[in-house]
Each structure stands twice: as structure tokens, then as C-alpha cells.
Amino acid sequence: MLAVLTACTGSGDDGADGQGATPAPGPTPVVQPGARVNVGVLGDLPGWSRLDTGSNTLQGFQADLMYWLEDELEIDVTPVQVTFEQRINYMKNGKADIMLANVAMNDERREYVDFAGPYVYSEQEVMTAKGGPDIGKVKDLGGKTVCTMRGTTSLQQLNEKLAVKMTIVERAGLSQCVSDLKRGDVDAVFTAQVDLLGYAQEDEHLRLENIQVGTQDRFGIAVPNGDRESCERLTRALKTFIAKGYWDQYFREHFPDEDIATHKPTPNDLAPCE
Questions:
Q1: Helices and strands (H and E) in the chain: how many
Q2: Average model confidence (pLDDT) for the chain?
Q3: Are 23 and 10 contacting, i.e. CB atoms less than 8 angstroms apart?
Q4: DSSP designation for 215
């Protein structure tokens, strides 16, 4: 595994000219030509980021982006499967060098990581099973059992921003929530819309209710705190990915019926690296 190196502190006596010691260098960039880069990924999002256990390959829009970045930046990527809850911890303990796993960019997470992006936008969405309770608006969630994932902004929004009383079931992965929904153990699944698109697309018994609520997620690629060079390399690459049509091409391949404008950022939308 490629280690995430922290800044080394230099030492030395002041010279005869009275100048201080040489400033400590910054962290070694995890993203640079020839580097082996462990990329944290989710593995249970059809159309977006799903691990095919037979071929042991990652498939979906986010997987296509990862392999495109591998070629564009001349790096050697190794996917590291994570759960939603593990994403920031894997960055903090060096198990992943970067995280391409639907990490919403927010100030709380910027205490631990920096971001290149956003590379996609997503509203929150509700998914139900046909034949289940009728949920056409937010207040219909009242008294229902709703599943979402631990460690997500979706869970935070369910707890803090939706003014209805419901029973919240927390799972490690979205596939567990979907299984609960199919069995009738929960009434609905609540998370970012892009997480749900593939499930609804491949199973006619699942439906998106189009009652998008809460705060829009801006997904970015998490990089180690202070690794500005890696952040800037990824940001430049993402601008190319968007501007030259790769974003549209891959998104249409996986979600041909979805409105691109709802989810696609422009190159000028990408945040500056800090």
C-alpha cells in the first residue's frame, strides 16, 4: 500500500547570517505519475460503483471515472472497497490514498480531508417498493420506517432537517437497505438520488418517488489534508473530464433516461484547492 506521508520537520542551527532553519517540506503527493494509488470505492451501487465478484472488477459511472483518471494522470489505481461509514476513517489511517466514494463536500469533513470537485451533484431522494405505502410527499414519511446508511449526510438530514417523526434504520451499505425494502422490513430508503438510480433502473418493483428534499450533495474526491499538489492534479483532470465530453458519455451509458443537467457540474463549478 502506498503510504500517506506526513510533513517532515527539518532541524538545524541558525546560520551566521541569522536566517532560521529551512521550512519543512509539505506532504509527498499521493497522486503523481507512476504512483500506486489506493482508491476507496463503494461496491454496492449498480450503474454507479458496483463490484462484480465474478470478475473482481468495478463497474459503473464512478468506476469509469476512476479508470479514466488512471490513464489521464499516469497512475496505477487499486480499488479498496469501503462502506459509507468507513470512508473518512480509511483516509485518516492511510488505508486509502484518495476516496472516490460519493463523499459529500462539507466543512465537517474538511477538518480531516481536502477535496477535488465536485464531480457530480445529487439531491436527496426516497425510494419505495411497488405495493408498499403511498409516499408522495415528505409528510407521508411520518410514522414510517426509513432506512439509510451510517456515516452519511442523508442520515444527518433525516435526523435534523425533516420535520416528521419516523423510525430510522441505519445500515452499513445501501444494498442492505434495499434488501430490507424488498422484504417489507422498511417502508422506504432515503439517500442521494444517484445512489438509487441503478437500483430503480434494474428492478421494476422499485420506484423513485421524486420528492427530492433536504440539501443537495456535491460529491468530491477526498485527498489527504494538505496535499494540495494531488488536489490540483485531480481538479485539472476533472475539468478535462467534464469539458471534453467524457462525463456525458459515461453517464449516458449507465443512465440513459436520466437528466444530465440535474447532476453535471461545469468546469467552473469546481472548488479551488485549499
A1: 8, 13
A2: 90
A3: yes
A4: P
